[in-house]
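Ops channel
N.P.: pipeline sanity check, posting one input/output pair.
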């Protein structure tokens, strides 16, 4: 698979044919622009940065369709913005922590230089990505938070296992658990690839599908003593369906 190119409209080879209809909104986005769903400041709800004020840059469009997705509104709603405008709006908040999320950010080639420019501006930059796309071109200063999709998501066949050889020790791998079967898959995956000795591994519940106490019991009964359980903090502070938080 090719790396992202600034001169290419989108990384089609990273999108399987059956999912290409999901990215058609990106067809007409020219070089130098991004399709942005929203930019806002809130409390970081997940990852080892949880609890900190953070500016979120949410890109529009995703080629995956996880059954439990909580941001389907980002699939087909977005505004074209120049990369410079996105950068300036993000920096205007004056917040030292920034997360670029989606949608799927790595569908848009202009995300790569945007990440670098935010790092150049002195920000601590997080990238949340599904793990279905090549993370090798991402600026090494960026903290990657990469999902490995569990079977109940319906998207585990898209996991790009080669990314495990590219991630840095400072990056994080997230597993979203919708069932006991998902937990068992997660435990096996972490142990097989020794992920908990190489990266920070995070496990969280699909909100409303698995109770936190259940996931806590599963984790405590396992040998995964380095794995960190997390809750989606923002869903406990605000209404779980609230947007822009």
């Amino acid at each position: 698979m090719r790396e992202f190119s600034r001169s290419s409209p989108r990384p089609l080879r990273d999108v399987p044919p059956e999912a290409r209809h999901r990215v058609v909104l990106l067809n007409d986005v020219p070089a130098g622009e991004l399709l942005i769903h929203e930019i806002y400041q809130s409390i970081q709800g997940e990852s080892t940065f949880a609890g900190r004020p953070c500016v979120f840059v949410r890109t529009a469009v995703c080629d995956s369709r996880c059954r439990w997705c909580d941001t389907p509104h980002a699939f087909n709603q977005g505004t074209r913005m120049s990369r410079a405008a996105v950068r300036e709006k993000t920096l205007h908040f004056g917040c030292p922590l920034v997360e670029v999320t989606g949608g799927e950010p790595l569908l848009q080639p202009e995300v790569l230089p945007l990440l670098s420019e935010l790092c150049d501006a002195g920000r601590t930059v997080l990238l949340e990505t599904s793990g279905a796309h090549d993370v090798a071109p991402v600026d090494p200063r960026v903290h990657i938070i990469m999902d490995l999709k569990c079977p109940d998501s319906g998207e585990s066949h898209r996991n790009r296992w080669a990314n495990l050889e590219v991630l840095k020790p400072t990056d994080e791998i997230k597993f979203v658990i919708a069932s006991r079967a998902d937990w068992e898959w997660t435990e096996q995956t972490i142990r097989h690839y020794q992920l908990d000795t190489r990266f920070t591994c995070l496990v969280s519940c699909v909100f409303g599908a698995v109770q936190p106490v259940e996931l806590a019991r599963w984790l405590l009964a396992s040998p995964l003593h380095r794995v960190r359980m997390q809750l989606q903090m923002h869903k406990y502070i605000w209404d779980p369906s609230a947007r822009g938080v």
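N.P.: looks fine end to end. The two ends are 35 Å apart (CA to CA).
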